[in-house]
Amino acid sequence: MGKEAQCRPLPAPRNQVQNLKSAIAGYKRFVKRSQAYADIIIQRPRSAQNPQF
Fold first, then answer.
1. Domain boundaries, position 21
2. CA 12 to chain CA mean position, Å
3. Residue 20 neighbours by CB under 8 Å, 6+ apart
4. What integer pLDDT is reported at residue 52 of this predicted model?
5. What stretches of the chain show up as alpha helix (H) in DSSP?
6. CB-hemisphere CA count at 13 Å for 25?
7. Does 51 reside within a domain?
8. Tell me, what's the pLDDT at 7?
């Protein structure tokens, strides 16, 4: 059991290929923007994140 399972992509019906490509592109944009947001938040000093009232 030391080997990782390898996934093979399943064939998609031709009429769904464009929708799948669009969904994958959208997911990639989401991941990229989420990472950029996380980078910005992580760089903020703690005092800026939790202002004292």
1. 14-42
2. 22
3. 12
4. 61
5. 17-43, 46-49
6. 6
7. no
8. 79
Domain annotation covers residue 53: no
User: In one letter, which amino acid is 2?
Assistant: G
SS3 5: coil
Measured at the alpha carbon of residue 13, what is the angle toward residues 7 and 15, in degrees to the nearest 5?
Answer: 140
pTM: 0.62
Residue 22, domain member (yes or no): yes
Amino acid in position 46: R
CB 20 within 8 A of CB 12: yes
> pLDDT (tens digit, 0 to 9) for every residue of the chain, 53 residues total?
556 667 788 889 999 999 999 999 999 999 999 999 999 988 887 666 666 65
